[in-house]
Design goal:
alpha+beta; Peptide Deformylase; 5-stranded antiparallel sheet; 7 strands; 26% helix
């Protein structure tokens, strides 16, 4: 019987690291130690109080991300849940995800990112995303997601295309953030999880 390996908490790549700007590659079912990698990604995400984590954020340029939007939905007040009809939240692995369609009106929500700590900004994203992917057993999936779950998925999906949430904000606002972003890339920031800063 295989020995169950312990999950590892991996360092999260900080803003300024080149891997965050690469377009990630699809993987095949024989990708080395994939199940261990997924277990480590869940462990790392929960350890840093995240609701999603993409492989580029742990220095792997592959099209893999994990999402647990149930945490957000389950913690909403009953009247807040009415703002997101049809969104029950998901806890899911997405491998080789590709967007089929984006639907609905763009709506704002205050986003943050584990790779860009202590910065939050309102970002406009579509209400609904339909995508195809394979799960951890490499079974093909296609589904539509809405509300907060769609947003978390789109945020993580951006990482696979070398994009960050700050790319969606107005140039002037980004200019105002330059000092904070420079501090992150130089490691001049304290967070309560492990980070990998650019060399």
């Amino acid at each position: 019987m295989p020995i169950e390996q312990e999950q590892m908490i991996l360092p999260i790549v900080a803003y300024g690291h080149p891997v965050l700007r690469q377009v990630a590659e699809d993987i095949t079912a024989d990708y080395p130690n994939l199940q261990q990698l997924l277990a480590d990604m869940w462990e790392t995400m929960y350890n840093s109080n995240g609701v999603g984590l993409a492989a580029p954020q742990i220095n792997r340029s592959i099209r893999v991300f994990v999402v647990d939007s149930k945490q957000i939905i389950d913690n909403l007040e009953p009247d807040e849940k009415n703002d997101y009809p049809g969104d029950e939240g998901v806890r899911q692995v997405f491998i080789n995800a590709h967007i089929a369609t984006l639907d609905g009106d763009d709506w704002p929500y205050n986003e943050g990112c584990l790779s860009i700590p202590k910065i939050r900004e309102d970002v406009l994203r579509p209400e609904t995303v339909t995508l195809s992917w394979v799960n951890e057993n490499f079974e093909p999936q296609t589904a539509s997601f809405t509300g907060i779950t769609a947003r978390v998925i789109l945020h993580e999906y951006d990482h696979l295309d070398g994009k960050l949430f700050i790319d969606h904000i107005k140039p002037l606002k980004r200019k105002l953030l330059k000092g904070k972003l420079d501090d992150i890339s130089k490691g001049k920031i304290r967070v309560d999880y492990r980070m990998l800063f650019p060399k």
